[in-house]
Write a structure and sequence with these properties.
This protein is mainly alpha-helical. Helix 3 packs antiparallel against helix 9, helix 3 crosses helix 10 and helix 13 crosses helix 14.
Length: 390
């Protein structure tokens, strides 16, 4: 080894020693962990082929509440994603086609041969930021959607429930027929003809692609970037209480932030947790590509989006954290998932019962009530606003 190289190595060691001697261990830990969690951006990026305009948002909102999009004209997007419930619903598994009522009061009509929707309804709030990384970078046309990330972008996601038998299609139309049928219906309504023309400024503006774009534009407008937690991350030390700050510290230290990171508190990756099955389903839900893995959900606005997990098995945040406390011991609750298949990050969880209360307190700082809760008085089809929810 040359003398110059030795001097260089000695110099580097001296710099490291000096840094460690002037920086407390908890500060170093804070620096490492805090870089993975940011405040939500105040502006939303739209895809290049679907710039957001007020006309698209207004059109998308009417379509969102109009059951004209469903096979039997009885279900709207808002049926399972209602603003009164944080654009989610207070049910473990949704009831779409052939149902009546809203949220926990919704029931199947009699007779019924439609199954429950397979998974818990994600909130639409902040889905504009799906796929965002810890540096607040994201591509809206590549944003992962659904619990199994089976499609990318809000434009693609918006069309999938219309095609699904148990969600909006029903048995009157085949999957390859329903979108063409919906476009045909919309073209017969003069108000929709005018609204699509104004929003897209093109001939034959009512199309499958523009239907997805209009719905996506509305959904992209539903963001909550001004929680107390966001204000804290932007420098307002008084935005969080002592217990919430303690909960945030524990949240990072026990390993929650390994998956729940970035400004959406999600890495948007699938993880195998061995969650117990929901017995309302006829067959086990094998998740992403048959792995029993499910995408990390955002932790924002949890106050409005109970129950939790992909199949809605937990109605309290305490129950969720107790599950993770048990999971840290390496035990699977799902007989189809051997403990050897559990996500390796589980081994890094150190959560205990003493951490649960403070972490739940921290979750309270992630709520924001300023999203658009207004509901149209009517929709252009003349059908029930929101579908058969009363």
């Amino acid at each position: 080894m040359s003398r110059n190289l030795v001097f260089i190595l000695i110099g580097l060691c001296a710099l490291l020693i000096a840094r460690c001697s002037t920086t407390a261990p908890d500060q170093l830990e804070s620096e490492v962990l805090d870089t993975s969690i940011q405040a939500l951006p105040l502006e939303v990026i739209s895809p290049a082929d679907n710039p957001t305009t007020p006309e698209k948002v207004a059109l998308g909102k009417l379509l969102f509440y109009d059951p004209i999009l469903s096979g039997n004209k009885d279900v709207a997007c808002a049926t399972c994603h209602h603003p009164n419930h944080g654009y989610a619903e207070f049910r473990d598994l949704s009831i779409g086609v052939n149902g009546t009522g809203l949220s926990s009061k919704r029931k199947f009509n009699t007779p019924n041969d439609i199954p429950f929707v397979k998974r818990n309804a994600h909130t639409i709030l902040n889905t504009a930021f799906n796929g965002i990384n810890p540096k607040n970078e994201y591509q809206p046309d590549q944003a992962p959607m659904f619990w199994d990330s089976r499609v990318n972008s809000l434009e693609s996601q918006a069309l999938e429930p219309i095609k699904a038998l148990e969600e909006m299609r029903g048995r009157a139309y085949e999957q390859d027929e329903i979108l063409d049928e919906v476009v045909r219906r919309l073209k017969e309504i003069p108000t929709y003809q005018a609204l699509f023309d104004q929003a897209f400024l093109e001939e034959d503006a009512i199309s499958i692609a523009n239907l997805g774009k209009a719905l996506a534009a509305f959904e992209r407008s539903l963001v909550t970037p001004n929680t107390r937690f966001d204000r804290y991350l932007r420098g307002d030390e008084d935005a969080l209480s002592f217990s919430e700050k303690d909960g945030f510290r524990r949240f990072k230290n026990v390993g929650c932030a390994n998956c729940h990171n970035g400004s959406m508190l999600s890495d948007f990756k699938p993880h195998v947790l061995g969650m117990q099955e929901n017995n309302k389903l006829a067959a086990p839900d094998s998740g992403t590509q048959g792995t029993f893995g499910f995408r990390t959900p955002s932790l924002r606005n949890l106050r409005f989006t109970s129950p939790y997990m992909h199949n809605g098995k937990f109605y309290s945040l305490k129950g969720v954290l107790e599950f993770y406390e048990e999971l840290a011991g390496g035990q699977s609750r799902n007989k189809h998932v051997p403990k050897e298949q559990l996500d390796p990050l589980i081994k890094k969880l150190t959560i205990t019962m003493q951490d649960i209360g403070p972490i739940v307190s921290f979750f309270n700082a992630l709520n924001d009530t300023t999203f658009d809760r207004s509901i149209p008085e009517s929709v252009p089809s003349g059908l029930n606003v929101g579908g058969n929810i009363e």
